[in-house]
Write a structure and sequence with these properties.
The structure holds 2 protein chains of 2 kinds. Chain A is mainly alpha-helical. Chain A is built from 13 helices and 4 strands. By secondary structure, chain B is mainly α. Classes of the chains: A mainly alpha, B mainly alpha.
Chain lengths: 342, 166
């Protein structure tokens, strides 16, 4: 097996997953609008195609053909880089999340050549099973903040800047709680590789052993995604639209893409860490993974339709004085129980 | 192949490091420092230190630099100011002398250092376990002392911020 073959096949695999992922993101936006409509007793989008199913396509065309306006007084390089950083760091975590046990057969015949796909794990249902997979996800998550912060600063607008500053304070506060909430899972699985964590949940989902960890993880994930009730960075009654106020056209679309990408990645990660990933009876693994992730994405939307926004001091209080001590307590209890039960 | 990656990453690290020093705006310096951290993380990866590389990104590029940017954005939104009037020749000489001294110490240290890289890092085991092993056995005391030091620093920072309020 040679290097060009590996490069071509890995690129193809990444391309297929990326296209599927982008489509899913587009339809998550539609799902959100539909579900919010249902919650608020209205129809939601229903003009374009049957049940509004072609709405994402129409939105995409609209965003593409809008004027890409760069206001005077902005820092052009950073202004352009910011949405790219947001979208890229939002996509990258998906490289290590296992969505199925295997995706392709171990080998196939191509014009008489037997092509072996087990090389470099091409047949597995994950792009890259690296041994610090979870840390990689967190590294990308911690970089995501730069998109909004730099976008807010480069816009040369006080509302944008305030949005960016709020986000940096919020991310630094909630990253700690997010990181500590999964230590219990790591202790149970004994590995940082997401594939191994899923395999360790063969008999029982970790949410059963780590109910507190699961709740803490979800709460912190909401804050990391900057979703309602923690969406203070784009809180429209104070900050116009926060860090994305000055953005239009595809640059704005990239920020939107990043936001929904974060929701899906957070749901997929919660599925992998706490809900057994692709494991489940009867149905094929990929169906289980999609089903569990879908339930969590629905939960994200449900919360947006239900909860009011926090005040900023309440947000900080919750992060430092509630989530952080609870996460430490969770680690302590997990450790003691593991020690007692051996 | 590995040599090529090493040279590219080392070049990025050096160039971005120089750019950090020569920028006039502190925000640009901070951004080049982030680039520098990435290059160094890449070098760690080449040395099969995946755990250190990931921590480098999470802690330095992801958390500390966000706080740096936060402070720079809060304090310095205007153009950078001119050098203060008391900027004398003596200061310049002292700076050059100290830089030369530290360069000598560093280079001397590098020539003395022996790093058994290839022996300790086996790809299959994963180095998270081996780092934990050495941290909690051989280096337990320095590890705990460091944590106490950090705690003292946190308490100090809280007291400083509280006394300002009064």
């Amino acid at each position: 097996m040679n290097l060009p073959f590996l490069v071509i096949f890995t690129s193809l695999k990444i391309l297929v997953i990326l296209v599927v992922f982008l489509t899913v993101i587009a339809y998550t936006v539609l799902l959100e609008r539909k579900v919010l409509g249902f919650i608020q007793l209205r129809y939601g989008p229903n003009r374009v195609g049957p049940w509004g199913l072609l709405q994402p396509l129409a939105d995409l065309l609209k965003l593409l053909f809008k004027e890409d306006f760069t206001p005077p007084g902005v820092n052009k390089v950073l202004f352009t880089m910011a949405p790219i950083i947001t979208a890229t760091t939002a996509f990258l975590p998906f490289a290590v999340i296992p969505f199925s046990q295997t995706m392709l057969p171990e080998y196939f015949h191509f014009y008489g050549f037997k092509i072996d796909l087990t090389q470099a794990g091409l047949n597995l249902g994950v792009i890259a099973d690296i041994n610090v997979g979870l840390l990689y996800v967190f590294a990308m998550g911690s970089l995501a903040v730069y998109g909004a912060v730099l976008g807010g600063w480069a816009s040369n607008n006080k509302y944008s800047l305030l949005g960016g500053l709020r986000l940096s304070a919020q991310m630094v506060s909630y990253e700690l709680a997010l990181g500590l909430s999964i230590i219990g899972v790591l202790m149970l699985a004994g590995s940082l590789s997401l594939v191994k964590i899923v395999e360790a949940q063969q008999h029982m989902w970790f949410v059963v052993y780590q109910p507190l960890g699961f709740i803490l993880f979800l709460t912190a994930a909401f804050a990391e995604c900057a979703r309602t009730p923690f969406d203070l960075i784009e809180c429209e009654n104070e900050l116009v639209a926060g860090y994305q106020t000055e953005y239009s056209s595809m640059k704005f679309a990239l920020f939107m893409l990043g936001e929904y990408c974060h929701i899906i990645v957070a749901s997929a990660l919660a599925t992998t860490l706490f809900l057994g990933g692709w494991q489940g009876p009867f149905l094929p693994p990929i169906v289980w993974f999609v089903l569990k992730t879908f339930v969590l994405v629905f939960f994200f939307i449900w919360v947006r339709g239900t909860f009011p926004r926090f005040r900023f001091d309440q947000l900080m209080y919750l992060g430092w004085k509630v989530l952080l001590p609870l996460a430490l307590l969770n680690i302590l209890v997990t450790g003691v129980v593991m020690l007692v039960l051996g | 192949m590995q040599q090529l990656f090493f040279l590219a990453l080392a070049a990025i690290a050096l160039i971005s490091g120089v750019l950090v020093v020569f920028q006039t705006h502190p925000l640009r310096s901070a951004l080049w420092l982030i680039v520098n951290f990435f290059a160094v993380a890449g070098l760690y990866l080449l040395a099969h230190a995946e755990f250190i590389a990931a921590i480098q990104i999470i802690v330095y590029a992801g958390a500390i630099m966000v706080l740096f940017l936060f402070v720079i954005m809060l304090l310095n939104l205007r153009r950078p100011e001119e050098a203060p009037p008391g900027y004398r020749l003596g200061q310049k000489l002292a700076a050059v002398a100290l830089a030369a001294l530290s360069a000598v110490v560093l280079v001397y240290g590098f020539f003395q250092a022996q790093i058994p890289l290839a022996k300790e890092t086996t790809v299959s085991v994963g180095n998270t376990e081996s780092i934990a092993q050495s941290l909690f056995t051989n280096y337990l005391l320095p590890f705990e002392v460091t944590s106490v030091l950090l705690l003292v620093a946190i308490v100090g920072a809280v007291i400083l911020s509280k006394s300002k309020l009064k």
